[in-house]
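A student in our group prepared the protein record below, which I am reviewing. What it holds is a sequence and that sequence's fold in token form. My question to you is simply how this chain folds and whether the tokens agree. Do not assume that whoever made the record got everything right. I have pasted the whole thing underneath without changing anything:
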Amino acid sequence: MWQPGETIAFRASDHVRAIYDHSGPGLIDYVIVNTAPVRPALRRKYASQQVKPVEVDMDRLEQLGVKVVAENLLQESATVRHNPAAAAAVAIRLAREGLGRRK
């Protein structure tokens, strides 16, 4: 979700670009993005605050040289958040894959 006053209208690639603006290109190997849709009632709630989900602009991410890992990371209640267990599972899987490549 956009952060009011900080990342309004940011797409996923804009987040990567902002990091590269501070660090230089090549720092990021993977971008993990959510694939699950936000339910309509919550979209309306956030839209009233001028907040929308971050658009995943796959083509631009690939142009930036990052590998995209797309997973259902959504945790919904009265708010929209990343599911910490799902995010951790992706991070652990990527770490294990990395270790496997190094052996």
Notes: The chain has one domain: 12-102. Residues 84-102 form the longest helix (19 residues).
